[in-house]
Specification:
- Chain A: Pfam families: DUF3726.
- The complex is a heterodimer of chains A (218) and B (559).
- With 218 residues, chain A is of the alpha+beta class.
- Chain A has one domain.
- Chain A has helices spanning 27-40, 45-60, 65-74, 81-90, 114-125, 185-195, 204-210, and strands spanning 22-24, 103-108, 129-132, 137-140, 161-167, 182-184, 199-200.
- Chain A has a 4-stranded antiparallel β-sheet with strand order 2-5-3-4. A two-stranded antiparallel ribbon of chain A has the order 1-6.
- In chain A, helix 1 packs parallel to helix 3 (65-74).
- The longest helix of chain A has 16 residues, at 45-60.
- Chain A is elongated.
- Chain B has helices spanning 19-22, 25-28, 38-48, 115-124, 147-158, 165-171, 191-194, 205-230, 239-244, 257-261, 263-281, 288-307, 313-335, 344-355, 358-369, 373-376, 387-391, 399-409, 411-414, 456-467, 476-482, 487-496, 515-526, 550-553; strands at residues 52-60, 66-73, 78-85, 104-110, 137-145, 173-181, 246-251, 426-431, 437-441, 529-535, 538-543.
- Chain B contains 24 helices and 11 strands.
- Chain B has 3 domains: 4-29 and 275-384, no CATH class; 38-252 and 547-553, no CATH class; 387-496, no CATH class.
- The radius of gyration of chain B is 24 Å and the shape is globular.
- In chain B, the strands form 2 sheets. Chain B has a 9-stranded mixed β-sheet with strand order 1-2-3-4-5-6-7-11-10, with helices on both faces. Chain B has a two-stranded antiparallel sheet with strand order 8-9.
- The longest helix of chain B is centred in the middle third of the chain and has 26 residues, at 205-230.
- Chain B starts with 18 loop residues before the first helix and ends in a 6-residue tail after the last helix.
- The chains are: A alpha+beta (218), B alpha+beta (559).
- Chains A and B meet through helix 1, helix 2, helix 4, helix 5 and strand 7 of A and strand 8, strand 9, helix 21 and helix 22 of B.
- Strand 7 of chain A pairs parallel with strand 8 of chain B, so a sheet runs across the interface.
Chain lengths: 218, 559
């Protein structure tokens, strides 16, 4: 096959035509990119699926989800908001879970990444859950509808936060979120570099086996 | 199934086939389309709701370069297929996903595109994966000519003659799509954006509408080219020949993982089809109308089997079995079947199940379902899936319960061999090149360290072994904290609790796995016919062959 100017086989997975430094992804693209990046970063497949789902949810809440995920993946394991979120969610219905007693986490990187997991905690327990970050308290009532959290964009990329999770005493209905699919070029490149760690470089053998055994020119 | 609690026919349940019977690759690879298939659902809707069709844009030169817009106007919304025609050199024509140019490229636009939309789409759609679409677009696709037939039809029509019917029948389409992307791919609208619309609720309705309008485009294009070449002496395609043409599709491994990665959807599709067959079998009597409808459907299946060609030795053998099997059904019907007896459909099914090869059994199932629209068409509403709701893991589930679920839903996996070279000969991976899924040979190719988690049976066995080390009353949350590598499988086990048809019950990394079995099953749910494998991982099919065209529906044609 001849090479062409815009040959996507040469372009890796990079979306073309970046308009400036920011481009718009669909929710499914964000979810897929986040899942692969999380897997590439060393999470198990099941955890990577959670990361993908959470990233899609955060984008629906109007937050800069890909950048948040990237910082979450960059964090040390002990400060990972993904591992903490998954753990809180899994323990939702248990005596040591966040619905029995308030749980305080020290030094969480990018603590807003906990939010989608806490939304699922609230759904599972049928009770609203508060995330207290000191300066802000966020009340989650369930997985759906996704609330508008765009006002919290200013407190993204925090590190070393203290987060307290407890059953909420009051349930405040939030306005529904507006999907934000924007992604900066640098964030995309970093996530894509991680995602490519899940792929296998092509060989002649794999190329041949993937196609038909006859010509398509018939 | 999401609609389980509302099932108006609980008496059909005992007639449902077991997942151990249905979810085997060999049987899935013998699947036939039914009236619940997605293209049939789409055609019924546009007919019942009296959709209108227009072609406001048609700008092509004598070489077929240009653009067209086809509008499908429903009761609330309009969808428009935007088509771009290209003059493709033969050496660039490839059905592979690594191709970079095609004879035609398409998008389904949400609404009616204006001049700015068309200009934007013209810059992007011809590039396919290398371009970018927006939330106004619902699909992105491309098609290549069937060169011989396309040229033959143009030449004949230009000369004032009809094309050779035998040639038309042999190929069955003027163009074949080589990818139809939907659901948020390359910037297109996410499924969630349209899933609440009645006309888009069932799976793949945007894609089916796009392909159906593409079929109209292929015929319009040959007539246009013939007219430009032949001038006043050119003729249009005769209606009976036109109807014989579908749209081809060429599909490779990229589609194979879909059914494995969407267990909730797979369950709902299978459950709907199995419930449909069970409802028919549960009928105490057969009415004259359903008997006549069945006879017609069987005859159509026999004709389809006669016209169905394949160059692949495996499929050739199966086609022989299919033809012989359907002839045996016809003979049994004529000479033996007691159609006035008790539960006649069940009696027919039991006879067939004991005697016919898989191809013929599955074709018979489709023919038995066909005349029972009143009984089964409502099941179409159960074929979509809210995968998000099923995604969460219940960490409070005990190890004992998880073990019981494994035993109930995955006992088929426990006896499989995953440790010998043949038992784990293959591995699924994503190629860095164009990010397409491929299937590798574990012993001979590098990359198994980056294996995709499609080795479901092996994961089930590993989970069972891991759970054996934990006390029964341990919550799963603790297991997952210590052994997060089992999270993927544990989620599937919990999903499968309420979904008996969620898993393909075979070893998907075994040496003898045939990826085309997965492709065929999915394509049959689309409504595909004429499956023609080109290798063990590549298949050509036809869509909409014999179906009406948009302009035929106003005239009351059957869907």
């Amino acid at each position: 096959m001849s090479e062409m100017a815009q040959d996507p086989t040469r372009a890796g997975s990079e979306p073309p035509d970046w308009a400036g430094e920011v481009m718009q992804l669909s929710q499914s693209e964000i979810t897929a990119l986040a899942t692969k990046a999380a897997r590439g970063a060393g999470l198990s497949w099941g955890e990577a699926e959670e990361a993908g789902w959470a990233c899609g949810w955060l984008a629906r809440a109007g937050l800069p989800a890909p950048a948040m995920l990237l910082r979450g993946l960059d964090a040390e394991s002990s400060a990972s908001p993904l591992r903490a979120g998954i753990r809180l969610m899994d323990h939702a219905g248990l005596p040591e879970g966040p619905c029995a007693l308030p749980v305080t986490l020290q030094d969480v990187a990018e603590p807003l990444v906990l939010v989608p997991f806490l939304a699922r905690v609230a759904e599972r327990m049928g009770a609203p859950v508060d995330l207290d970050l000191g300066s802000h308290t966020i009340c989650l009532t369930g997985r759906e509808p996704v609330p508008d959290l765009s006002a919290l964009r200013g407190i993204c990329h925090r590190t070393g936060a203290r987060a307290t999770i407890s059953v909420s005493q009051s349930s405040r209905a939030a306005a529904p979120g507006r999907f934000d699919g924007r992604i900066e070029r640098g964030v995309w490149q970093s996530l894509d570099a991680l995602a490519l760690l899940t792929t296998v470089p092509a060989s002649e053998v794999s190329r041949q086996r993937a196609g038909a055994q006859s010509s398509d020119n018939d | 199934m999401t609609c389980g609690a509302l099932n108006p026919m609980p008496e059909a349940a005992p007639y449902r086939r077991s997942p151990d019977t249905v979810m085997r690759l060999a049987r899935m690879g013998a699947a036939h389309p039914t009236r619940l298939s997605f293209l049939r659902q789409m055609l019924r809707r546009v007919q019942n709701e009296n959709w209108r069709f227009e072609r406001p844009v048609w700008e092509f030169d004598a070489r077929g370069q240009g653009r067209a817009v086809y509008c499908a106007i429903g009761p609330e919304r309009t969808y428009s297929l935007v088509a771009f025609g290209h003059d493709l050199p033969d050496e660039l024509r490839s059905d592979r996903v690594i191709a970079t140019a095609w004879d035609a490229t398409f998008t389904l636009f949400d609404g009616v595109p204006d001049a700015d939309d068309l200009a934007r789409l013209e810059r992007n759609v011809p590039l396919q994966e290398a371009g970018r679409v927006s939330v106004r677009e619902l699909s992105l696709s491309r098609a290549n000519k069937s060169v011989r037939l396309f040229d033959h039809v143009v030449a004949r029509l230009a000369a004032g003659q009809q094309p050779d019917a035998a040639q038309l029948a042999e190929t069955g389409y003027l163009m074949r799509t080589t990818a139809v992307y939907g659901s948020g791919k390359f910037g297109a609208a996410d499924r969630a954006q349209i899933a609440d619309r009645p006309e888009m609720r069932a799976p793949f309705q945007a894609e089916m509408l796009s392909v159906w309008l593409t079929r109209a485009y292929t015929v319009d294009l040959v007539e246009h080219l013939a007219q430009r070449r032949g001038g006043a002496s050119a003729v249009t395609l005769a209606p009976e020949l036109r109807r014989m043409l579908g749209v081809g599709n060429s599909t490779g491994l990229g589609m194979a993982p879909f059914l494995v990665r969407h267990p909730v959807l797979l369950n709902n599709w299978m459950m709907a089809r199995e419930e449909a067959l069970a409802r028919v079998r549960a009928q105490r009597t057969a009415t004259p109308e359903t008997l006549a409808g069945f006879e017609a459907a069987l005859k159509a299946a026999q004709e389809n089997a006669q016209g169905w060609q394949s160059g692949h030795p495996v499929q050739q053998a199966r086609l022989l079995e299919l033809r012989n099997g359907l002839d045996a059904v016809a003979a049994h019907m004529r000479d033996v079947w007691d159609r006035l007896g008790d539960h006649p459909w069940d009696a027919l099914w039991r006879w067939a199940e004991a005697r016919l090869p898989l191809e013929a059994q599955e074709a018979l199932a489709a023919a038995m379902i066909e005349p029972h629209g009143d009984l089964v068409d409502g099941l179409a509403d159960c074929m979509a899936a809210d995968e998000d709701s099923a995604f969460g893991i219940d960490g409070a589930m005990t190890v004992a319960r998880a073990r019981a679920l494994l035993s109930e839903r995955y006992s088929w996996a426990m006896g499989l061999d995953h440790d010998t070279p043949a038992g784990c000969a293959r591995f699924w991976y994503v190629s860095e090149e164009k990010l397409e899924p491929r299937l590798g040979e574990r012993a001979a190719e590098p990359g198994a360290g980056r294996e995709l988690p499609l080795d479901i049976s092996r994961q089930a066995v590993a989970l069972a072994r891991a759970l054996a080390d934990w006390p029964e009353d341990t919550p799963i949350a603790k297991v997952l904290l210590a052994q997060p590598e089992h999270r993927h499988m544990l989620r599937r086990v919990q999903m499968a609790a309420m979904r008996p048809y969620a898993e393909v019950r075979d070893n998907l990394i075994a040496a003898d796995v045939l990826p085309i079995d997965l492709l065929r099953c999915k394509l049959a749910f689309f409504g595909a016919t004429r499956f023609d494998p080109r290798s063990d991982r590549w298949v050509r099919i036809s869509l909409f062959q014999g179906a009406p065209y948009p302009q035929d529906l106003a005239a009351g044609a059957d869907t």
